[in-house]
Amino acid sequence: MPVGIWRLLLHGDLAALVRRLEAAHEPSPYLDAALLAAFSISDRGLQPTHSIADACRLTDRIMPGLLWSISGLVGEAKARLVVFEGLPRAYVGTASTPALALLAAFVKLLVDQPDIASRFP
Predict the structure, then answer these.
(1) How far apart are CA 64 and CA 44, in angstroms?
(2) Cα–Cα nearest to 1, from 17, 14, 19, 18
(3) Which of 67, 81, 77 is nearest to 109 (CA)?
(4) Which residues contact 12 (CB under 8 A, 6 or more apart)?
(5) Residues with Cβ < 8 Å from 53, sequence gap 6 or more?
(6) DSSP for residue 28
(7) Which fold has domain 3-117?
(8) CA-CA-CA-CA dihedral for 97, 121, 17, 52, to nearest 10
(9) Is residue 7's pLDDT more than 90?
(10) Residue burial 33-53, b: 16+ Cβ < 10 Å; e: rest
(11) Nearest-CA neighbor of 48 among 34, 64, 60, 32?
């Protein structure tokens, strides 16, 4: 597991990151940097809060093959992410854009299931 994730889990900062993602009104270079640092990714061209494509690239680097869906568009988007580890669980993120909503749902998964986070490459 990347050191950044352990540090965030230990300090409860992942929950704060979820709140920031869900409260953001638009894509944010600050949130992009926080996400990349948390997952020890150095791809400066990756802007996960800016597009659903980049949000998917980020989640696929960490947990390939996640099942997710998006409803709504810019203004009020909802992402549902389903994990089939043991009993299936769904995580929902609500934010102003589909990318922010997907990222919020993904980080909620990590908050709820740190054992899954421990398997990061």
Answers:
(1) 20
(2) 14
(3) 81
(4) none
(5) none
(6) -
(7) Double Stranded RNA Binding Domain (3.30.160)
(8) -10
(9) no
(10) ebbbbbbebeeeebbbbbebe
(11) 32
> Distance (Å, rounded) from C-alpha 7 to C-alpha 3?
6
Q: Which of 38-52, 57-71, 73-87, 93-107 has the lowest mean pLDDT?
A: 73-87
Which pLDDT value is given to residue 4? 52
| Number of residues that this document lists for the chain | 121
DSSP structural state of residue 97:
S
Q: Name beta bridge partners: 95.
A: 77
Q: Quick: pLDDT tens for 43-71.
A: 889 999 999 999 999 998 888 888 899 99
Query: Could you tell me the pTM of the whole model?
Result: 0.86
